[in-house]
Amino acid sequence: ERATEEIMTQSVRRGLAYAAAGFGGCVMVGSVGTAAAQQLRELRQQETGAAAAPTIIMREKEMLQNYSETHRVEAVVHRPEDEAALLALLGGAAQEGRKLRVVGSGLSPNGVALPKDGAEAVSLANMDSVLHFDKDAMEITVEAGCTVRAVQEYLSDRGLTLENFCSISDQEVAGWTQVAAHGTGATLPTVEEQITKLRLAAPNGAVYSLTSESPLFGLAKASLGTLGVLTQVTLRCKAQHKLKETSVVEPLETVFAKHLDRLRDHLHVKYLLVPGHEEAMVVTADPTDAPLHAAPAAEPAHKELWERLKSPGDADPVDAVQYREALLDRRPLEYENVKEVNAADLESWRAAQGTRVGASSDVLGFNCGGHQWVYEVAFPVGTLERTNGNDVAYMKNVLETVQKHKIAAPAPIEVRFCGASTSPLSAAYSTNLKDVFCWIGIIMYLPPHDPARRREITAAFEQYKTLTEPLQAAASATPHWAKVELHDTAALKALGVKHRDGLAALRAARRETDPYNVLSSPLLEEIYKLMEA
User: Fold this and answer.
1) What is the C-alpha separation between 142 and 509, in angstroms, rounded?
2) Which of 67, 290, 418, 532 is deepest in the core (most CB within 10 A)?
């Protein structure tokens, strides 16, 4: 490790002699980085007495697809083992006019990181180490290919935790932050706000070491992997703590009447709306010193419905999530069937309502189910002192839309909240850090092995989204970067309007960091076209 540090320090010192004037924290590496990588290979060979493996594993053709298998491409995949190898790869692509996209865990519903079919991809899976931990400063520095789950496990062993989580934790840190993912809590911003420092390897041969004082910092935290390739991230942590989660089923009238007080009184708030029904599950969570205890045990309320609908030889599901998916699979586009399944979901939640106390990472995560289409939007709702009421209006309107058009909409319609972000491309970006944003997501589940049925559900989901477009316009809502489709012109236009200044700043910055457009994003390219038109 000391030898590695010395080699890289020498590389940086030599590189500084070539650094062009520009953004703070820029270190030109280029061929110097390649030389450093060669020194490291020679060092490894001396230690082991055997020839070291090449730093870049390349030219592997793979079928890349996202978790729900709704997007897939065939691509050459490069797997650099270190920053120097990554720079060599980026430099070669720039010289040869090739395009690269950085891919992660593949969890985005829209496959946002996937390259165009036949193009090339970069995986950071081999760059997944914890580099530095500072308990006094409450910070951890990791390579960008490290998963959120691995970071959390490392911190947990040392009495710390991350400030905020999403519902799942298998994302790589790079993808998690670059799309400005979110958890829930009106005072908790999108996850990239936990970053205090970062390193970005750019196709221009530079490494940018950025902090909050750096002009590029806000863009670099969330730019869909187009400003450069995130190689290292320092995340702010907090003391490990327990959360007391309370789950209760309430009439919608009560949910809406108590909404503002609930946002003010609880750190985490989430609603699970049930299409076709006048009740919802309300979930709150707050720090506590109470002893650990599990949620009340309850049998799924789907069993009677399953006995009526199952076919001979069908294996019985084991939990409420599996029951829901199996029942929906029988008649996924029949309104009354889906409404009946939703009623069983509601009764299962009612039977399990109560409290539990657990580690924050355990309480905030949950089972999102199997293959699915998801579309989620965010919009400002004012501040905790003075709200504009758009969140309650949207909740009411989306439920009314489902009922009016008899959309076979499964539960839940999930509602969460977050605080403002300083990243210009975050859906929660605001210059007023007191602003609160509401996130509302709609869903349809996909059977994993029935292509014809998947096509039918996909068409129905597109219609579902289209019917909610007037609601989005009324609330000034914009879609989640990881959940908007390339063909969804209305949503892309909304992103162009929301992020006009940020997208213009990104384009200008990329003229410096990526002058040959190596890291271009098909999604951003389409938005720029619409903005110009």
Assistant:
1) 25
2) 418
